[in-house]
Amino acid sequence: MRLVVLGPPGAGKGTQAVKLAEQFACADVATGDIFRANVAEGTELGRAAQEYMDRGDLVPDDVVIAMVMERLAERDCQSGFVLDGFPRTVNQAEALDRQLADLGAPLHAVLCFEAAEEELLRRLAGRAAAQHRADDAEQTIRHRLEVFAIKTRPLIDYYAHRGLLINVDAIGPIEVVTKRILDDLEGNRRPG
Ligand code: AMP
Questions:
Q1: Is residue 192 in some structural domain?
Q2: How do residues 40-56 score in pLDDT, each as one tens digit?
Q3: What is the span of the domain harbouring residue 158?
Q4: How far is the CA of 59 from the centre of ligand 1 (A)?
């Protein structure tokens, strides 16, 4: 299974991506997690990404694309992957399409998580308290939601045009949302 999870910060993509990767026994590739690990380890990639992350801006496409293409070439991604947090721009989506076309391994579906802004703000404030993420400070949260609306939202149309988009109501207990997604994926596979 090759999936992308798309949606604003706080919509629960990361939580569901872990569940889906378990369910389909495939790799969970979360670009934000990879960047945070690199920042913590003080690598060159981490140094390149940190200032953008702290501001709530996107890390430049060339940096992200190179990192993800390398990651997708790793062995564990051969059995499939759930991409969480990538692509976030049309440029990134086009690069992903090219790579997957070269590999003869196109995406099965793109899950678009939807939740009202006040719910997102509530969840992100909770996460800021629990995880001490620098980019979950209130001003930065608002900026990240704007960045999503401007840079990432166009991907909804991009994938809808390709017949890959599945909208997910992201409100509800974790297990309920997971079940909704699995049912939708199953429904999508049925002919007709
Ligand atoms: P996330 O944990 O997915 O919310 O990502 C945290 C931060 O990492 C984002 O606010 C960006 O600064 C950076 N980041 C993660 N994925 C990407 C991406 N695909 N493109 C650009 N920046 C990214």
A1: no
A2: 999 999 999 999 999 99
A3: 2-185
A4: 7
